[in-house]
Amino acid sequence: MRSQDRHRRVGFTMIELIVVIVIIVIVAVVTVMSFNAVSRNTRLTGAITTVKGALGKGRALAMERNEWVVVVFRSVPNPSEPALVDEDGDDLLSNEQEKRSTRTEILFGQFTGETGTWIPEWPPEDQEGLPPQDLYQGTSSTLEDRYVEIPGAERYLLPRGIKVAGIDYYNSTTANGGMVWATGPELKDVPVDGPNNIDFAAHRWFVVGVMFAPDGTVRTRNNSNSSKSMWMDFNNNGWQELANPADPNGSETNASKKFLALHAQDEPRLTLTMILGVYDGEEARELLLDPLDPASFNIDELISPNGYISQNVDPLYFNRFSGVIME
Predict the structure, then answer these.
(1) Nearest 5°: phi and psi at 52?
(2) DSSP secondary-structure letter at 164?
């Protein structure tokens, strides 16, 4: 009888098996969550190092070349994901932006010496052979410097989801002592049904830049001339391509909308800053964006003084007299 009792006790009961499985699942979930957190922190730390290196390079270029240099941070479709093409093999940029994730690209720009009032127009697709848009002198409040990419300068691409923001000095809240941020869009979240149908108040996205003077200091305008702002001609074609260009009759775009960047090809006025923040854009979207109702996204929850960026970044400041990043 005793030997039979011992034989019956061999193995696990169903309850014991369930308890073991539950423990294994809990440990697996905790392990995955910890791995994801470590992975995100690693990507963010690496991106901050890259941004600091790019800023140091921009400062060095300005001093070596004895000219005004801007370090630009713009949103581009992830090049590691396949682009959508039409039957002719041409990129479908708008659809492509809807489907592909966004990366932040870092470029280095140089002043072309051209200063004027640029009238943005629709790309002249049906006007082949015509010269670039006219450049004419206007009032000091409308003058813009044209910058182009420095030939041979290396571009940097931050890890997927990592975004760069800068303090928006043009915002009235910032002017009154708050810190409102300017940052680039997650391109697939931006409507693609034409500029006249976009709610610009809900999509206040920008191209952020840091400008170095020839002496290496950081500036928010080129004080060697009377211009008040600047733009980066990314494709160097002489045409300023905007999310909300001038109408066909030639009237100029509303000044505030000339800062907006909703697509990878947009060339708005740069939002120059002296304070930067590097943040996890993927985490911000998970917290702030309802995937079932993207239209409910409130950008103020991201960029306001009490928003996600302010609460999750360690700002990068520059020494006022040298332009070196302050640790």
Answers:
(1) -60, -40
(2) E
Question: For 16-58, how does the pLDDT look when each residue is reduced to its tens digit (9 = 90+)?
Answer: 778 878 888 888 777 766 656 656 788 899 999 999 999 999 9
Sequence-distant (≥ 6) Cβ neighbours of residue 180 within 8 angstroms: 167, 168, 171, 173, 174, 303, 304, 305
Start-to-end Cα distance in the chain: 78
Q: Give the ranges where 233-303 is alpha helix by DSSP (H).
A: 281-288, 300-303
pLDDT tens-digit readout, 167-181: 988 776 766 677 899
Q: What is the pLDDT of residues 217-253, one digit of tens each?
A: 999 988 888 788 899 999 998 878 877 654 443 444 4
Q: Are 260 and 205 in contact (CB under 8 A)?
A: yes
DSSP per position, 89-141: S-B-HHHHHHHS-EEEEEEEEEEEEEEEEE------TT-TTPPPPPEE---TT
| Rounded Cα distance, 271 and 90, in Å | 31
Dig out the tokens for 80 from the structure: 């590691």
pTM value is 0.78
How many contiguous H segments (helices) and E segments (strands) does the chain have? 7, 14
| Residue 274 · residue 315 · CB < 8 Å | no
Q: What is the pLDDT of residues 249-281, one digit of tens each?
A: 344 445 566 788 888 888 889 999 999 999 999
- Residue whose entry in the numeric block shows the structure tokens 């009961």: 13
The tokens describing 137, both together, are 């002198």
